[in-house]
Amino acid sequence: MQTLYEKFGGQAAISKVVDIFYDKVLADPTVNHFFKHTDMEKQRKHQSLFISWVLGGPNQYSGKSMAKAHEGMNLDDKHFTSIANHLADSLRHFNVSEEDIQDVLTKLATMKSEILYK
Fold it and tell me: CA torsion sign, 83 to 86 to 90 to 92?
């Protein structure tokens, strides 16, 4: 069975999705302030590796745990929903099927409690 990583076209395709994703995130006042002091080139690369791993690609992600990476940010459901919606819209930009988008969002939802770490 083909992984979502393979289905989406591998690392290069996921990097393009991540670029669109961050364009959307940085334009959204609901969440863009979280990235005010972030090296976005590094963040885009890091996120691309993370999403690739989540979608069944090779595990090249060597960053912090979700809980540690989001610690002290005081994230809530509206922030999580905004990010999830931007990811879904970014996938739609590349004509990913709604079924596959729902699979991605389901995987993301399994990390929600760690991401909303208080």
Answer: positive
Residue 111 is given by DSSP the state T
Q: How many CB atoms lie within 10 A of CB 21?
A: 23
What the block records as the tokens of 112 is 């929600």
**Highest mean predicted confidence (pLDDT) among 66-75, 83-92, 105-114:** 83-92
Mean pLDDT along residues 61-86 = 86
Whether residue 65 is predicted with pLDDT greater than 90 in this model: the reply is no
- The rounded distance, in Å, linking the Cα atoms of 59 and 51 is 10
Phi, psi of 5 (to 5 degrees): -55, -50
Residue (of 14, 81, 97) closest to 48 by Cα position: 14
Q: How far apart are CA 39 and CA 46, in angstroms?
A: 11
